[in-house]
Structures are given as structure tokens and as C-alpha cells.
Amino acid sequence: MILRTENIVKQYADHLALDNVSIEVPQASIYGLLGPNGAGKTTLIRIITQITAPDSGEVYFGGRKLQENDVYSIGYLPEERGLYKKMKVGEQAMYFARLKGLSKHDAEKSLRKWFEKFEIQAWWNKKVEELSKGMAQKVQFVITILHKPKLLIFDEPFSGFDPINVNLLKTEILNLQKQGSTIIFSTHNMASVEELCNYITLINKSKNILSGQIDEIRHNYGDNVFEIDYRGDTEKLKENIGSNYQILNDSEQKFFRKITVKAKVKEQQNALIAKIMQDAEIVNFNEIIPSMNDIFIKLVEDDK
Amino acid sequence: MKKTLLVIKREFIIRVKKKSFIIMTVLVPLLFACLAIVPALISQIKSDKDKVIVVLDDSGIIADKLENAGTIKFVNDAKPIDSLKNDLLKNDNYAVLHIEKSENNEKTTGNITIYSQQVVGSEVSNTVKGQIKSVSAQIKLKEYDISTEQIMQVLNPDLNFKTIQLGEDGKEKVSHTEALTGLAMICGVIIFMIILMFGIQIMRSIIEEKSSRIVEIIISSIKPMHLLLGKIVAIALVVLTQILIWIVVFGIIILIAQSQFSDIINQIQDYLQVVSFAKMLVCFILYLIFGYLLYASLFAIVGSGVDNEADTQQLQMIASVPLMIGYLIMFIVSAQPDNPLALWGSMIPFTSPIVMLARIPFGVSWFEIILSLAILAATFILFTWIAARIYRIGILMYGKKASFKEIIKWIKYKH
Predict the structure, then answer these.
(1) pLDDT (tens digit, 9 = 90+) per residue, B128-165?
(2) Chain A residue with minimal CA distance to B405?
(3) Are B281 and B226 members of one domain?
(4) What residue of B is the nearest CA neighbor of A101?
(5) Domain contains B3
(6) Between helices A234-241 and A269-277, what is the axis angle to 10°?
(7) Residue A126 sits at the chain B interface (C-beta within 8 Å)
(8) CB of B165 within 8 A of CB of B172?
């Protein structure tokens, strides 16, 4: 565990922003922090980055209590982000790098490397107000990761980027993970959560309502619905699988038939396969796993 | 500490490199130089050419008594007025002055007319009018049989007027009321302008970071308190730099054009006789720094409460009203240094930097000064603390203008 929060409570004047939130972020994982708007994600991030302090509860970083110096080991790209408009890009990047504790020499070396990698060397002497929004965000991304932090926190990192740059960013995020960085990733884009994250936490109404490994969660939230492509007698097949299964759909395809069934009682998948095999040939057998999008909507709706 | 230094460096360099800073730094001494040098240049230009005024005096009582003044030369001519006017069109003379005879009184003049091809400048018309007036007056006085000297004695009695300030040891000291008032005003105005100008800069700088959404990136690396401190110190350094540049440049200008500034130099020497220069300087610096710090925290509170400049008007007013009041009290001080308002104004921390400084030239005991400074220091420490607490919350609040109630609540939040 690189990061652990324990029963974090944060009360603002008129509402409880976080209510006993505990999360555990494993080393070198990509950790999705999900939740509807206003659920408390940003507050949790601000507590981890020491922008604000919890009313009660503890944050542990690398096995011990979070300390002031840990800001050097954390990189944070906020959702609401900007740069000094009148300042030159290079000068500004240097300033932020040095605030993160890099020496002048290291900061410049590292910045040149990243600017080259992102093909933005030509912007070094431009003022930020001359850049487009996407360009400025590229610079912000570089600034965030420059000091090689152990923990990176990205809040909606892809908003404002074109698909090519989104891919560039995803590649870099995965690279950072390979090099051992841990990444906390807050977003509403569930497709990118499924694509990138290993673990997630879903925060709703200030509470952690779901935490765990993403594959496990998706399986746990499966409705025991199976989709089978087969060749054979439909009536016999229905008879064989018996009354434990509800037939949701059955249709003729070009070379086979497709049937969708829902188990009323949970049963081993092999048992179902065995029943079908008696009188039909299986072409394809699939468990329908819900998307993160479905799980998100279901849980948040149910919580109302 | 290292990070605060980084912030100070950035905030300082960015301001000193700004066009407005460079323009102000160059323009103010330049304007000052112009004010001093241009009149000198003008006075040299005008001595080039004589302005000849041809006088036709039908009354016969004025013309002989007109005296040449500077470039203005009077020439009598008895030709008829029409031919004089014609001549004027052909020659280089400046004007024709026609003094008509009075219909009923030999000893006064009738209509007086100046003909010229150009617009007659105020210098010429004033000289001509003035001379004719005084000649006429003298003629009149003679009629009443009073000598000019007698009249002058009545109008300008030779009084020897002095104000003496009695010291505690009974020592008499000549007090130059005008010099004191001048010094009081200059100090008050300088403090007022600096505090207001740079207080507003603090506010702008906070709003800029808020509205450009940069602040969250910064404060994930540095504590808000250190960021605010860096800003306040950096802007104070900018003020000092600018003042220092001005002092040096003014010093050079005054040295170069010493003759032009003899009045000012004399006046400064006058001031130095009356007031202890060291006392004044120490107080000026202390009140400037403490007052700036107090108002810097007030303007920081305003900047934390809003997220764009259009919303600042109302809150900015509240922050600057006490300063304005101090400015007004300063005028009372210079007219009535012992007015109770002056005493109160120099103790209340929001007005004391201006009012006390205006009072010092008139004599204030060290006890009062130290008391007033102590109150001011305690207040700025309190307000810096409050501002820091409001700032750390306010910079993360976007979207709406904070109400007073909310701002008060922010002070109580735990960090």
C-alpha cells in the first residue's frame, strides 16, 4: 500500500463532504476514484495533497503518516487548472518544478527531455496566452509528472484533449505505471476507467460505497446472464436447462442460434455448459459482464 | 522558506519587468524634469526678439511714462491712427496702442485699443494694462495731493511677523508653519498613495491566480500562508525599488539643474531646521511598512472573497474607506494640529500611518508614537493572521462572490 486513508471526515459549514472514507491504494496501480459530481472526490484529493486537512481520520503515505515533505513525492493535476497567462512557458515550468524541490539544473534537464518527447520545444519562449487550451494542458501534464513523484493524481486528465493527444497521455500514464509510479485517476469517463484502472473506489454522497479490484467488481455485479451461440434443437435445449433459467432472448443467426439466459439461482457455469452440451453444439459461451458505466449508474441510482 | 524565496523572486521579477512599472519609473522623473526645465527653456526662447509697440497717445498723459519691459519696447508716434494701422501691416512692429482722449476730463483716458496682426498674448496685454493703470493711479493720487510713498505705506505696512515655539526647556524655536504644513502633507500623501496602489496590487495578484485556476497547482506544492507571505514581501520590495530609483533619479536631476531648484532646496533646508530629520525618517519607514502590511492583509481578504475583478468594487471600497478617512483627517491636522480628531486619528491603526506622519512635524512625543506604532503592529499581526485563514479557504472557492457571513465562517475552519 503506498497510500491509505483511514476514516476521513471533513465537514464544511453546511454539509458533510467526507463521511468516514477509507481507501487503500496498492503500489504501482492505477486507481480510479469515481463518483457523481459533488460526491467528495475533490475534497479527498485535496486532503491527500495537503491542500486542506481532515477534521478527523488519518492519511498514511508509504507506510507512515503523511508529512509536509511528502508534497515532493506527489504530483497533482487538478481538474480546475491554469497557468500564468503572461509568463513564458519554459520560465513557468521551471518555477513549478523548483517549487516541487528540483534544483535549477535538474529542472531544466528534465523539462527539455519532456518537451522534446511531447514535441513542444518550440513553445519554450512563448507566452501561455498564445497557446490553445489543449496545448496549455500538455504543458500542465509535463509540469505534474516532472519531479518523478511516487504518487500521481490526475483529476479528469483527458478533458480538453483531442483523441490523438488522449492516446499520447494514456501511453505516458501506462509508462509511468511501468516505471513504478502509482496513479490515482479521477474521472467520469467510464470507458477510460475500464481501459486503464486496476482498482476503483466509488464515492457517493460523501461515503465510500464500493472499493476493490475492477474485474472482481464487474463479476460480482454480473446478473448471471449468459449468452450462448449454438447449433441444435432449441426445444430440447430449453428442456435440458430446466426451470432454473429464464430465457431472455432466442434468435436465429446465419450459421447458428443465439440464446440469452439468466440464472435464477446461482450455479457453476460448467453445470450450465454440461446441460446445453447434451443435445447441442456450443459455438460460443459468454457471461455478460456489466460495464463500469452500468455499475456506476445502478449503484448511484439505488443509493438515492 | 526556500519556496517563499522562489515566490518572492517570481512575483518581484514579473512586476519589475511589467511595462507599467518601467513606464512609471521613467515617466515620473521625466515629467518632473520637464516641469523644471521647460519653463527655463521658454524664458530663453522669448528673449530673442523685441516686440515694438507704437503708441499714439491722444490724451497726452500716459505715453511718456510707459517704460520698456523685457522684450516689450514702446515707441511714440504722432501720426494719425489710420496711417499707423496701415504701417503696421507693412512693417515688423508688434502692435499699435491707441490711447484716446477722454471727452470730459483732461486727466483721464478714453478708450484704449491695441491693434495687432497676431493674437495679443497675455504677457503683452498684462504689461500694457498694468502700466497704464499705475500711471493713471499716480495721476489721480497727485490730484488728491498724496505722495506715492504714503500710499505704499498704507497698502504694504512693513510688519515683522514671526511664530515662536516654546520648547519645554523654555528655549525659543522659530516655527515655520508653512514648511511644517507642507512636510506633513507630503508625507501623508506619499504614504496614502503607496498603501493604496500596492494594496490593490496584492488583491489583483490573488484574483489573477484564482481566476486563472492556477492556485490549486501552486498550493499542492506550497502552503497558502507562504504563498501569501511571498506576495506581500515581493510587492513591498517592488515599492522600495521604485522609490529608490526615483530618489536617485531626482537626486541627479536636482544636482544637474541646481539653479532651477534653489527654491526647493532652500525649502528642504528649512524643513530640516524645524524637524529632526532622523525622527521623521524612522517614523516614515515604520509607518509605511506597518501600514502597508495592514492594508495588504485587508486587500488580500478582498481578493480571497471574489474571483474576478468586476466583483471587487464593493469589498474594495470597504477596505479603502478607512484610508480615505485618514487622508481627510490629514488636512485637519495641517490646519489644526491640536484637534482631538488628529490625536484619535493617529492612534486608530487604520488611519494612523497617514495621520501620525502628518502630526510629527508639529511635534509629537515619542511615547505617543510608540503607543500608536504598537497598536498598529498588533492590528496588522491580527489581520495578517485573519487574512491567511480566509485566504487558504477563499482561493479554492470559485463561482460566486462570498458573502460577509461566509468569509467570517472561513476564519473558523480548521486547517
Answers:
(1) 888 888 888 888 777 777 777 777 777 777 666 666 66
(2) A13
(3) yes
(4) B3
(5) no
(6) 140
(7) no
(8) yes
